[in-house]
């Protein structure tokens, strides 16, 4: 069981979440232009996963970080700052056509959460980035259901289970205390609510 929980922590790494959410969203919005969707997926994958992983590898080689989980607070500031720059580049480059507004505001929510997480990190407080990611997805689904007037009970239930497993995994690895998990989850969820509140206003 411990091996599964450790592997799970890698599977739901925050770097992979935006690409998975985008893939689900575009599959959900099947009427979208295939060429536009393909381009956006490539850009999302490059800016939120490929480049951050490349930067992590460089930081690892330089000895600035110990693991991809960024266990120490001092390891987090630079990667989070770089990630925010990449998010801004993605938002300015991939969503200029005005299409897929819901996904655009999802990434705005991710940017808000990342900014707050960076500020908190400077105070030497280590929130759970894993739970921030799953909380963000749950918040995105709730707000998407609300703004689009559709039922997303199954995806919401699945994300509830995913969040529970992720919290259990992080506790099992002694990577976080309970309040750090709750803070991270709440930050991710509320950032989506804040972003979508502007979307529907």
Automatic annotation (TrEMBL):
On the tree of life, the source organism's domain of life is: Bacteria
Q: Which residues cross the membrane?
A: 7-26, 41-65, 77-95, 101-120, 181-200
Q: Which keywords label this protein?
A: Membrane, Transmembrane, Transmembrane helix
* Protein name per Swiss-Prot or TrEMBL: Transmembrane protein
Q: Which organism does this record belong to?
A: Nonlabens dokdonensis
């Amino acid at each position: 069981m411990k091996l599964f929980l450790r592997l799970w922590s890698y599977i739901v790494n925050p770097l992979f979440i935006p690409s998975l959410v985008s893939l689900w969203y575009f599959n959900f919005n099947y009427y979208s232009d295939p060429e536009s969707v393909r381009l956006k997926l490539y850009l999302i994958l490059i800016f939120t996963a490929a480049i951050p992983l490349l930067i992590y590898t460089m930081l690892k080689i330089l000895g600035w970080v110990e693991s991809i989980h960024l266990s120490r607070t001092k390891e987090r500031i630079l990667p989070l700052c770089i990630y925010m720059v990449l998010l801004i580049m993605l938002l300015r480059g991939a969503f200029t056509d005005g299409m897929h507004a819901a996904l655009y505001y999802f990434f705005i929510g991710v940017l808000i959460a990342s900014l707050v997480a960076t500020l908190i990190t400077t105070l030497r407080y280590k929130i759970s980035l894993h739970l921030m990611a799953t909380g963000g997805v749950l918040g995105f689904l709730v707000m998407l259901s609300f703004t689009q007037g559709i039922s997303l009970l199954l995806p919401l239930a699945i994300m509830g289970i995913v969040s529970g497993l992720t919290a259990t995994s992080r506790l099992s690895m002694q990577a976080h205390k309970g309040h750090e998990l709750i803070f991270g989850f709440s930050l991710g969820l509320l950032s989506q609510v804040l972003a979508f509140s502007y979307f529907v206003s």
